[in-house]
Design goal:
Blueprint lengths: L3 E3 L4 H10 L3 E4 L5 H6 L7 E4 L9 E3 L2 E5 L4 H6 L1 H6 L1 H8 L4 H6 L2 H6 L8 H6 L3 E6 L2 E6 H4 E3 L2 E2 L6 E8 L5 E9 L6 E12 L2 E10 L6 E2 L1 H6 L7 H10 L10 H22 L8
Parallel strand pairs: 1-3, 2-3
Antiparallel strand pairs: 4-5, 5-10, 6-7, 6-10, 8-9, 11-12, 12-13, 13-14
Length: 284
């Protein structure tokens, strides 16, 4: 497979290249794209590397948390504000792939690959993340839920660049957690769940739940959120979650097992998130 390799030094230069070069693809870590090229599933005429563009790798944690799409998974995981303020995202990053993959792969790449099992997506969904997309010289923003359209499909249009993921700072007293299950270490998730819980003396104020690997895209489980309460050990939330997902049968697991497992993970993630909020005890 022959292709030309380009190394722009700025977003302006990268955008201009994409507009001028036919059949061009952007590349950052390349942990997914290079595999697909090697397998013959993609045949780009040009690869436009974004690795020299420093603004894509920065993490700014002021009032909101802005993660450059080119930040590596390892650098994102190591950032103290990510670990302290977005623990469910940190847990998903720690579970993602091998150390080598985390050192090369980027958070933007994990989302742009648009796998239903993308580990970073469920926690970012419960944190109400949005994405910044550059189109030429303009920037547009989308909620993450509107960015992920289907297996391997995002809202990115030709020549657009995912610039950053922006996460509102969770309110004080919010606890969150992420759990995944795979067949073996470093395998894709059979099912994954993230939860965010804010309580007041044991009463629910705000609860969010999202799941991965059990529908065409990672998704918020709004039906489970609507009935979630710690007083019934999150049982109604688990039942509602099983009804809202659309699992498939594949080599990793049957649809029936994924549905059963998701209910279990929802209860565990909500319990862990409630405990992390400081307003609930797992031993209750």
């Amino acid at each position: 497979m022959r292709y030309s390799y380009h190394r722009p030094a700025s977003l302006d230069e990268a955008s201009d290249m994409a507009a001028a070069l036919p059949n061009a693809r952007f590349i950052q870590g390349g942990t997914d794209l290079m595999v697909r090229i090697g397998q013959g599933r993609e045949r780009p005429g040009h690869l436009i590397s974004l690795r020299r563009i420093g603004e894509l790798t920065t993490i700014d944690a002021n009032r909101e948390i802005r993660i450059g799409a080119g930040a590596t998974l390892s650098d994102t995981l190591a950032h103290p504000d990510i670990r302290r303020r977005l623990p469910a995202l940190a847990q998903s990053l720690a579970a993602l792939g091998s150390r080598q993959v985390r050192n090369m792969g980027t958070i933007g790449g994990n989302l742009c690959n648009a796998s239903p099992a993308a580990d970073t997506a469920p926690p970012l969904l419960v944190y109400d993340a949005r994405v910044e997309i550059r189109n030429g010289r303009a920037i547009r923003c989308l909620p993450l839920a509107e960015f992920l359209l289907g297996p391997g499909k995002t809202a990115l249009q030709a020549g657009e660049i995912l610039v950053a993921i922006v996460v509102p700072d969770p309110p004080e007293g919010t606890g969150s957690a992420f759990i995944r299950r795979g067949r073996v270490t470093m395998d894709l998730a059979i099912a994954s769940v993230a939860a965010s819980v804010r309580l007041n003396g044991g009463a629910s104020i705000a609860i969010r739940v999202a799941a991965g690997a059990v529908a065409p895209t990672p998704r918020r489980l709004t039906a489970a959120e609507a009935v979630a309460t710690p007083t019934d050990d999150w049982s109604r939330a688990a039942i509602a979650a099983r009804e809202q997902i659309e699992p498939i049968t594949d080599l990793r697991a049957s649809a029936e097992y994924r549905r059963h497992l998701t209910g279990i993970l929802v209860r565990r993630a909500l319990t862990m998130a409630a405990a992390a909020s400081g307003q609930w005890s797992i031993d209750r």
